[in-house]
Design brief:
With about 300 residues, the protein is an alpha/beta fold. Helix content is about 40%, strand content about 20%. It has 11 helices and 13 strands. A hairpin with a 2-residue loop joins strand 1 and strand 2. The longest helix is centred in the N-terminal third of the chain and has 26 residues. It is elongated. The protein starts with a helix and ends with a strand.
């Protein structure tokens, strides 16, 4: 009946509404009378020159148009399931592992998902979007223990942070380096910044100066240019490949912060896809780590653990 009501509202007269619906004028009057009777309010004001919507009629038209648009969107969404078990998947992958797993991720989904969209970044604000349903798969270091019981978590890897410094600072103790070059770190509102600050306090290291940088690639650029040092995941630093001569990777003393990466997805919504994606990501991380360890003797790479 809402379809008929919207069609009637779009016409200036009963005769025009009857012609648009392919029914008689009395039939249109019956539709209006039935709706007004069910709702208990008058929807139209009828006059010699035509019909005019009353406030209740205007509000019902707005609601009806919204409901019909939602119905069309729902039906279109359901039709997409004819081609793929999962028509669309929105994925967020944290920046530090994105270059290492993105190809494997796409390969794992190619035959199972229609449209794939991937975003990447530091990931500090992605959890609210995930919980609101705006992200379907989340690869991040967030506190998944705090997630609702309807979320499945697939651990991927963990790695002790290492020291990334210009080669000129490779032989310096951490305190000496901190007194010479600025620390390039994550922004203040991130958990990793808090973990690094706690670690440096325990080690008695007080950086002479600090730069806040949200981008890992920009952080590495600063280190490679000899303008600063950073505490970073070793896989990220070692992935520089052709620029490895511009950076020194070194294990940290004491108990350095640990970055743990996992994949999260709503339980039972995507069948076996999250498990397959997690397995593909683990294989990619393992292969990447093995290649790097074969090419370099950095002890920091031994602190990478793929589940």
């Amino acid at each position: 009946m809402l379809h008929q009501y919207v069609a009637i509202c779009r016409q200036p007269t009963l005769a025009a509404a009857a012609a648009a619906l392919g029914v008689s004028k009395p039939a249109v009057s019956q539709i209006i009378t039935r709706l007004e009777g069910e709702l208990g309010v008058a929807l139209f004001e009828r006059g010699r020159t035509g019909m005019r919507l009353l406030p209740a009629g205007r509000r019902l038209l707005d609601l009806a148009q919204t409901m019909l648009a939602d119905e069309r969107d729902t039906l279109a969404e359901m039709r997409r399931f004819r081609e793929h078990a999962i028509p669309r998947l929105r994925i967020y992958v944290m920046e530090s592992v994105s270059p290492l797993v993105i190809t494997a991720l796409y390969a794992a989904l190619a035959d199972k998902v229609g449209a794939i969209s991937v975003e990447s970044g530091r990931g500090e604000t992605c959890v609210p979007e995930f919980l609101r349903g705006e992200i379907d798969l989340l690869v991040s270091t967030e506190l998944f223990a705090d997630m609702p019981g309807t979320v499945d978590v697939h651990p991927l890897c963990s790695q002790d942070l290492c020291l990334a410094a210009p080669p000129s600072g490779a032989a310096h103790a951490l305190s000496e380096l901190a007194a010479t070059l600025p620390l390039v770190r994550a922004p203040d509102n991130t958990r990793m910044h808090a973990a690094i600050a706690t670690y440096l306090a325990v080690e008695g290291v007080s950086p002479l100066r600090e730069f806040s940088c949200r981008s890992l690639s920009a952080t590495l650029e600063i280190v490679c240019a000899g303008r600063g040092w950073a505490l970073l995941p070793p896989l990220v630093v070692a992935a520089l490949r052709d620029r490895l001569d511009l950076v020194s990777i070194r294990t940290l003393p004491g108990r350095p912060p640990v970055q743990t990466v996992a994949l999260a997805a709503d339980r039972d919504r995507y069948l076996e896809v999250p498990r397959l994606v997690a397995d593909a990501c683990r294989r990619a991380l393992r292969e990447h780590n093995e290649r790097l360890r074969a090419a370099r003797a950095d002890a920091a790479l031994a602190a990478v653990r793929v589940y």
